[in-house]
Known about the structure:
Layout: H1 4-12, H2 21-29, E1 34-37, H3 44-54, E2 58-62, H4 66-78, E3 83-86, H5 92-104, E4 109-112, H6 120-128, E5 131-136, H7 159-162, E6 168-172, H8 177-186, E7 194-196, E8 204-210, H9 215-224, E9 228-232, H10 236-248, E10 253-256, H11 262-273, E11 279-282, E12 295-300, H12 307-314, E13 324-330, H13 332-344, H14 349-362, E14 374-376, H15 379-386, H16 390-402, E15 406-409, E16 416-420, H17 424-433, H18 435-447, E17 456-458, H19 460-467, H20 471-483, E18 487-490, E19 497-500, H21 514-536, H22 542-549, H23 562-589, H24 594-600, H25 606-618, E20 623-624, E21 630-631
Parallel strand pairs: 1-6, 1-7, 2-4, 2-5, 3-4, 5-6, 8-13, 9-11, 9-12, 10-11, 12-13
Antiparallel strand pairs: 14-19, 15-19, 16-17, 16-18, 20-21
Helix pairs in contact: 2-3, 5-6, 13-21, 14-16, 17-18, 19-20
Amino acid sequence: MQNPKTILNQYWGFDNFRPLQEEIINSILNGQDTLALLPTGGGKSICFQVPALCKDGICIVVSPLIALMHDQVDNLKRRGIPAIAITSAMRKRELDIALDNCVYGKIKFLYLSPERLQTELARVRIGKMKVNMIAVDEAHCISQWGYDFRPPYLQVADLREICPDVPVLALTATAIPKVVTDIQEQLLFKTKNVFQSSFVRSNLAYTVKKTEDKISPLIKLSQQTEGSGIVYARSRRKTMEVATLLSKNNVAATFYHAGLSPEERTKRQKQWLTGECKVIVATNAFGMGIDKSDVRFVVHLDLPDSPEAYFQEAGRAGRDGKPAAALLFYNPKDIDDLERNFEASFPPLSEIKRTYQALSNMYEVPVGSGAGMTLIFDQEKLCKTYKLEAIKVFHSLNFLEKEGYIAVNDAVFTPARLKMITNNETLYRFQVENPKLEGFIKSLLRMYAGLFDEYVRIVEKDIAKRASMTELEVKRVLKDLEQRDLLNYIPQNDRPLFTFLLPRVDAKKLYIAPEHLIERKKITSLRIKAMISYISGDTVCRQAQLLAYFGELNVEHCGVCDSCIKKTSHNKKISRDVTTTKLVKLLSSSPKKIAELNDLFPEISTTELTFIVRQLLDAGRIKFNTKRQLTTE
Length: 633
């Protein structure tokens, strides 16, 4: 077994770990099931990547976010670490080869979604792998009390039957005490074992401002603050409008939401990361996995649905440890909107059944079939074809996902892939028989190594340039070669996907347990009440309120949030009033020179005492006598 610090230095170039990372790593290396609670930007990925590299074998990483999986796999590959992600966008043959590489190849990290764990193919192959640890990212998703509960996560525990002696590392940035307990129980921890760093961010100043005008203070903040900023808005339209207003006021800004094409999202994200844009205005689709150190402010223009979401999003400010601000602007209408959205997020069962029926009909999935089927999702077409309201469809799909019937993935760019499925001899014979295609095939083989071994990412535009063809012609030829059983061609996709996790049932018989509906509504209601309580609690330290929600009690007040500053100002005024009264009383009985006052009021700073004296002189309550003493006469 290699030394963790040696691995850290070799691949990441650091000499030392961040707080708690080393303890978590040692716990896993000692074979202990471990739950790590580290705040946003606390370096969770290092906690499983380093110990996995210390040992022989492969690490299985369960993650719910395709985009995040791709980012981490790309980052590992750039460091020379073989990794692969199994996603719902992969075809069966591609999946088959990828899993074989995990069994027989040198892959060190296998990233996959919890939905993929439900397939027999994945389970059988995992049983053949030499697994050295299991990492469960976003582990709060396994708990019904977690703010993003996903039923497929409950299947993660099945890995323990396949890999009985392999330690599990669960990771999350936010979890209330009840969720902390539930995660360990659901993952069948042999012994309770939690490492939790303090969520205190002493450099982060939380501010809540009740105002009808949110834009003016945002513009002023953006203009006067160095560094970059993130502004969160609930609607896609609002992100565009706010970014436009900032730009008109000489603030370099762009907007970001899931409705943009993957290329456009990547471009805008890069503009912000490189500093070309100072401010990015986004929906909550932005931010997961982003690690930008100089974010000086995060502003919320709408109320988040839960303290968990707010804490995670606000925590993206000030990761470099320097002073940063987290501001939340609201007005009474926002509270009404939050409560209205809460009611809308629990559609009647009839609406859920109607959406499920429409979904099944549009994709022509017969009753009893479809389990594991992944399809490109077109919500606009679904609503238009079956005359459904988009907002009702959104919440109905969300509920079907929570009940484990389907899984929906946001649009994620997946590049075109190619693999030769014939041998060299057959391919050569085909080229001899089809001389017009010989040059095209040779171009492919020269441009992309390993086509006979695995699926390789290709760019049709580059092939077109090399082969003196149009991009459309390249795609046509590739499809033709696929029909001749020479290769597998998977075109790029940038649209949302959804998967039927269970065989399709008759919508009339679609069963959703009433107690599940009641329980989830109760949990969501508690979160919304906690969020409203937070914005209303201007007499208690903002950070202390958030930390108490997550079970971290008796923390010192931050001293920099709006509540603390207000309290400090109030206490300072009381102290000043008391000093003023004492000073006037003293001078009325015994005139004193200014120099003498410092000794008589040692608890007051010279600056503060001078300020009080000036106020009294200006008000005419005290004056100088002929001996240059202060007196009331």
